[in-house]
Write a structure and sequence with these properties.
The chain is built from ten helices and twelve strands. By secondary structure, it is an alpha/beta fold. The protein has a domain of 74 residues.
């Protein structure tokens, strides 16, 4: 569903991304892993057509995004930001309804089909009970679920999430990641950025590790989440411990693990 070929990007004279290539398949959860400031968000902005000055190619469903209008691209890929705080205190229903706008004409108004899609998206994410609530009155985890529901209402089959569990407590992190994993299992192509290797290992189908704007490693979680790769990725001496038959890998600083 998504293929990035030799993508490079610079802010003026400062290179940010260099020769990035990867694929994300239908029904797959791909985690883009790296420390803060390595270019993960910039990569997303290029893939969404928001930073057109890149070199290389981005294909979604076999189509080069440079040949797509914003409306057509929105029908293929939906973006879920790290945080969302609209200026007005819209209801949850109205927030999710905004996801239907790419399918409407300039002077069209949402109708029965769009309202039904809102109900479907809320039910799918398990938050139908929040429909009439005000967005600003929700918890952080609830807000993030609403934004994911809005992306589903957009009817795109590619979901791109920028650090979806940032600033959430552990329970809400697991809730959001479980929902994301379930969407991938249903056939969505899901790409998320993260700086958490333990979560990446537990939930991802594949991982793309980026350091200094370049691909450091990519492959299955077992291939990428290793002591050597993580130590290089984060510039720290890291030890890994396996739990539950290697279904979980826990990162520990070497100065603690070696005591």
């Amino acid at each position: 569903m998504v293929e990035v070929k030799n993508l490079s990007f610079s802010y003026g004279e400062r290179p940010v991304l260099s020769d990035i290539s990867f694929r994300a398949e239908e029904g797959e959860l791909l985690s883009v892993l790296g420390s803060n400031g390595v270019g993960k968000s910039t990569l997303f902005r290029c893939m969404l057509g928001l930073l057109p000055g890149y070199s290389g190619q981005v294909l979604i469903a076999g189509q080069d995004i440079e040949n797509l209008s914003a409306r057509k691209l929105a029908r293929l890929a939906a973006y879920i930001p790290q945080t969302s705080s609209p200026a007005f205190n819209y209801s949850v229903e109205d927030i999710v309804l905004m996801g239907c706008s790419s399918g409407l004409g300039v002077f069209s108004s949402p109708g029965r089909a769009e309202l039904a899609r809102v109900d479907w998206a809320l039910e799918k994410i398990g938050i139908a009970g929040l429909k009439k609530r005000c967005f600003h009155h929700l918890s952080g985890g609830e807000r993030q679920l609403v934004i994911i529901a809005r992306a589903l209402a957009q009817n795109a089959r590619v979901l791109m999430l920028d650090e979806p569990t940032a600033s959430l407590d552990f329970g809400n992190q697991m809730l959001i990641l479980s929902q994301i994993k379930a969407l991938a299992a249903e056939g969505y192509t899901v790409i998320q950025t993260t700086h958490n290797p333990e979560q990446s290992y537990m939930f991802s189908d594949r991982i793309l590790a980026i350091k200094d704007g370049r691909v450091l490693a990519q492959g299955s979680p077992r291939q990428v989440i290793s002591q050597e790769t993580l130590s290089l990725l984060y510039g720290a001496d890291i030890r890994l411990s396996s739990l539950f038959g290697d279904r979980v890998r826990v990162c520990t600083p070497a100065f603690l693990a070696d005591k």
